[in-house]
Amino acid sequence: MTNAATENPALPTPCDGDASAGRQRRRGCRTAGGTGGGRSRARTSAALLQEAEDEAAELKDAWLRARADIENVRKQARTDVARAHKYAIERFAGDLLPVKDALESTLAARMRRPRRCAPASSSR
Questions:
Q1: Secondary structure class of 71 (helix, strand, coil)
Q2: Are 15 and 24 in contact (CB under 8 A)?
């Protein structure tokens, strides 16, 4: 079946006349550009949805990268603190070595020398 309006362009169609744009969209009338108003809105909504999904994916990626960076900084800080403790203990031990050596040499010298006994006091 064919529509008389499509066969004869001079005949008015339901989309012609003073009908509002909203009614034309509801009827599925096509605009002069050849696309239906509902389709362009759907395409726009789909494009907006795609843009929002893309932005959400980018933000999620940025968040995950920032989270990984923070975790790396924490690990590095723990390593730095452990290294600082290790070297502090090593330095303290290194500072004590001369003291230990001095005490040992003093004790060794003391052991090599015979003890002098005080002369016995004479009874008068």
A1: helix
A2: yes
Locate the domains of the chain by residue range: 13-111
Joined tokens for residue 15? 């989309």
Structure tokens belonging to residue 31: 């605009």
Check: pTM over 0.90? Answer yes or no: no
The answer to whether 20 and 4 are in contact (CB under 8 A) is no
Q: For every one of its 124 residues, what pLDDT tens digit does the chain have, with 9 covering 90 and above? A: 455 444 555 555 555 555 555 555 555 555 544 455 566 777 799 999 999 999 999 999 999 999 999 999 999 999 999 999 999 998 998 899 999 999 999 998 888 876 666 666 665 5
Q: Tally the residues of the chain.
A: 124
Q: 36: which strand partners?
A: 30
Contact present, 40 and 28 (Cβ < 8 Å): no
